[in-house]
Protein: Pyruvate, phosphate dikinase
Amino acid sequence: MTRYVYDFTDGNKDLKDLLGGKGANLAEMTLMGLPVPPGFTVTTEACRAYLRTGTMPAGLLTEVQHHLRLMQNRMGKTFGDAADPLLLSVRSGAKFSMPGMMETILDIGLNDASVVGLGRQSADQRFAWDSYRRLIQMFGKTVFDVPGEAFEEELTAARSIAGVATDPELGTTQLQDLVHAYKKVFHQHTGRDFPQAPHEQLFLAIAAVFRSWNAERAILYRRQERIPQDLGTAVNVMAMVFGNRGENSGTGVAFTRDPATGRHGVYGDYLRNAQGEDVVAGIRNAVPLAQLAAIDPASHRQLLSIMQRLEQRYRDLCDIEFTIENGRLWMLQTRVGKRTPAAAFVIAAQLVDEGRITLHEALQRVTGEQLAQLMFPSFDTTAAPPPLTTGVPASPGASVGAIVFDSAAAVAATEPVILVRRETNPDDLPGMIAAQGILTSRGGKTSHAAVVARGMGKTCVCGTEELRIDGDAVTVAGRTLHAGDIISIDGTTGNVYPGSVAVRPSAVVRYFEGELAAHGDPLLSAVERLMAHADHQARLDVHANADTAVDATRARRFGATGVGLCRTEHMFLGDRRRLVERLILAEDATARSEALQTLLPLQRADFEELFAAMDGLPVTVRLIDPPLHEFLPPLEELTARVAHAEALGVDPGHDRTLLTAVRRMHEQNPMLGLRGVRLGLVIPGLFAMQVRAIAQAAAARIAAGGDPQPEIMVPLVGAVQELETVRAEAESVLASVPGAPPIRLGTMIEVPRAALTAGQIAGVAEFFSFGTNDLTQMAWGFSRDDVEGAFFGRYLELGIFSVSPFESIDRDGVGELVRTAVRRGRAIRPDLTIGVCGEHGGDPASVRFFHDAGLDYVSCSPFRVPIARLEAGRAAS
Ligand code: ADP
Ligand code: MG
Ligand code: MG
Structure:
């Protein structure tokens, strides 16, 4: 029979699939001999079974009871005992950390009898009653969906009756009254009494934690973080320890290094006389961890040494939750901690320096996504007004937007907004996703707002205590701002500015541009080292999509080793539109050839510049692709112009000629129409002119002492015969240009038929380049220009795909076409060069796929080049 329960002494950190991250790490800490309260983990498998059937799998409850007995023996206490009760926490914990997304219930086992017994165990009964009211509240909310406000209202009332400002000031009698009031609330909303039987509490709590996997906010979070929806959560049941037992007790969270910058030294918050999530929620202001050294030196020392051991064990930054009960330290959680992108690079390099990990491993600790975030701009502080106030810089970035005070307003907004809250909780998640940035008045770097924002790569400033938020206004530094007012927040410094502050490029971008040296800067030197190692490892080359010498030059600075796609159609825009018009309107061969003759030197000059910028490196020039009518005015505009002229009795002249041409060329589905290679076959001389321009430019570069390496790429080929015709024409042109170097000719693979007949095509093509935008559009049969607004939202919701296939390659469908084409192409021509030049070339997950598919290079926009380089290196190590 399947085993559903593992004691903490049975597991270890590698069992995350089964025990969830929290359970696996609690087991690991137990294994290390750290002070972890005893407990056990109910597996994710049990959760999946429960969610599938709606009932607890057979045998689970018996197993739970068995493990509970073991725990009781170890503790010398009985669960829910009236005199000296063992109490439990029931905690969610999935494979991937989802901070605050699912449920945890503390103090399970308390009832009307045991609360008295628990109270007698210490000098002061207060904490027992405080724990009991917390249980009714958490249990009510989690198990029976009693609205949180119902309890909050009673709590507020209790404070005002007692005339105190904070919860810890409530005395025993007041808490007893509160318990009474809470029980009433419970009955009102559930129609039953708060369950007094400890086992019933426990089983209901376990089921509720299972169900919390499917809470709306949890689903949303997983979608955002691309965590699979079918993993389920484990449930950890452990003995309670009490941080709310008085001033010698408390609870805290800490990081072994600064999760914002990566700087050395522990970092955390501690809250005296508090339980559970009080710190994480930022509900009361905690003190920095360093102050624990004065409050409880022995526990502080012990904590520091434990944190050091954890770092050694996990070989990475760890975060922890701990509780001190009457001077005794307990570890409640650890995991490899989330961190900002900058911290990820800095820490990876530090750990190499400390001899903890190899450069190889360091490369696996950073991602292309993180590098992308580091390439975001930041505020130009020289142009900024003095800040209104400064909060805790919790998640870097520079965001400007209109103030909104609640999640719904953020979701509804059409302009960029900053979500301004006292603190955030998981219900604010939709608003946090919608906002440019998050600003809170309470909580530190470990608050909910901070943790979630860092995970999403969103700007966040928290704990900005000077902010007075009151309904739909916020007062700071004597100024009152309202919803809709623009502010700028800096997640790197914590500064909050009035109005819109200008943004400037990132240091990492300036480093790549060669404007900043890496030396002496921890982040830039970490980036430099890891990029160098990535380049050393990578098997994929990274080329850039660049149409001009300026773009190519930048791409080269960013580390591109070629141009994988030069689109020639931009060379037909601007003033040159007229020349294209002449070509289209040409009525005979002479007129057409004249038009082409005027275009030739212009194209040649463009190519010469581009080849010079990429001297010594390959430049893949794609012959003209879009339908020619794109170079003419739109049909509606022309029709209106002609009608207007006729109405005035004026001769529309040239416009009428154009209109006739546009009508003649009109297509219902231009993207499936006369474009790409089809143009080359239908308009005599067009491709020949382009080939001649390329060859002449190369010859000129050679004459000037350069080393041009052009390649000619034919778009939209679906049949080998198309390519044969173009090749024959191109070869005769090339042979006729004196001084031209040998120039390779290849094709894009972007029509599904080309992928399937790649074996035939490879007989005529010296290289392939996957045009994955068109390939995706044609494989799925949806127009990439229309789908995003039309139905992708619904598709994402339904999980038909978890990310747009235009953003990240669809491995199963489009990917299979890619693999097929690679296989069939190389079978015919083993030295076939194969690359990709769609948007996917700069997408981290896709780069990995192209590596695995055996491509030679990816080509992407210049700004994505470093990201692709990093991912190419990671894919190969
Ligand atoms: P999350 O995953 O949202 O952080 P946790 O399961 O870690 O939720 O629990 C929430 C809070 O309850 C944490 O602050 C944790 O320290 C506290 N807590 C959990 N179990 C116990 C326990 N056995 N004794 C005391 N506090 C606990
Ligand atoms: Mg936790
Ligand atoms: Mg295309």
Observations:
- The chain has four domains: 49-56+67-239, 250-336, 376-504, 538-571+596-627+690-876.
- The mean pLDDT is 92.
- The chain is about 45% helix and 15% strand.
- The domain at 376-504 is CATH 3.50.30.10 (Glucose Oxidase; domain 1).
